Amino acid sequence: MAGLAPGHRFTEHLVQLGDITFGLVDEAGVHWHCDSDDGWSGPDTRMDLSQREADHGAWPSPAYMAERVVTLAGRVFAPSRAAADEAFDRLLAAAALTDTVLTVHETVPKQLVVRRSGKPLIKRLTGTVLEYSLQVTAADPRRYATVEETGWTSLPFASGGLTPPLTPPVVSDAVTTSGEITATNTGSCETRLRFTVDGPVDGPTVFTQMPDGSVIPLLYSQALYEGDQLVIDTDTKTCMLNGYVSRRRFLTTPAGWPAIPPRSTVGVQFQARYYSSAALLTARWRSAWL
Predict the structure, then answer these.
(1) pTM of the predicted model, to two decimals?
(2) CA–CA gap between residue 20 and residue 91 (Å, rounded)
């Protein structure tokens, strides 16, 4: 493979960990090969079984996905000993102890947020060839779309309309803003939403209408002033004001926390005690796969 230009793609299976893309030739002429990505296809499952008394079988508990452990293994071919040494260090840095994005470029590219979870195994086969095995773990086992989707809306209002006396033919120029966001999950696993409410607004409420017609409300009892920003994360189940102050005690979730079911669409509605033209609701989500 000598002589391949930087950026040359020599495999259809591209895997990216941090700043390394396996399957490409980098600017230093290093060929990064990933021969296996064990664990990418699926995580383990957590479930308890209680044996039935005087009967066959067992009683199962609810089943949940465990963390996803992925082991990347392959070889690195460098044009010189110096380039091989640099590749060695880059492999260690890519399998970081902090959150790192692992992306597999399938037909629909998907990603995990991972951290190093095992001892990096890097062996020098020759002065310019390395063999590696890197184990990383995603605490959240769902594989997400690499593109985050966003929708936003202000509070609903109507403007314009008809003012008597009226003379036929009557034409109305009323403009109505619905205060609703449509959010679609194209994946095979439910996904969670993150809502951001920008003030000023008094008692903002977010309603999520599920595909079966049921509605899941998130009710915030306090007022937000100009410049305030409230972030409600339905995955971590947190409610943070201005990035660092927890306001979870002021958020009521009478029907639980909303999520977008697989291959489904939900409607998100924004309401408040009083209309505020500056109030804004932003919803963010990613399609998710098992």
Answers:
(1) 0.85
(2) 8
Amino acid (one-letter) located at 214:
S
- Parallel/antiparallel/unpaired status of strands 245-246 and 175-177: unpaired
Asked if 26 and 86 touch (Cβ cutoff 8 Å), the reply is no
Judge whether 104 and 40 are in contact, CB under 8 Å: yes
Rg (CA), the chain: 26
Give the burial class of 235: count Cβ atoms within 10 A of its Cβ; 0-12 exposed, 13-18 middle, 19 or more buried: middle
pLDDT tens sequence across 89-116: 999 999 999 999 999 999 999 999 999 9
Is a pLDDT exceeding 90 seen at residue 169? no
Which pLDDT score, from 0 to 100, does residue 13 have? 80
The mean predicted confidence, pLDDT, of the chain is 90
Tens-place pLDDT, residues 5-45: 655 665 668 999 999 999 999 999 999 999 999 999 888 88
CA separation for the pair 34, 120 (Å, rounded): 15
Q: Can you give the pLDDT at residue 179? A: 77
- Rounded CA-CA distance 159/171 in Å is 14
Exposed, middle or buried, 122 (CB in 10 Å: 0-12/13-18/19+)?
Answer: middle
Contact 102, 16 (CB under 8 A): yes
* Residue 262 and residue 184 in contact, taking contact as beta carbons nearer than 8 Å: no
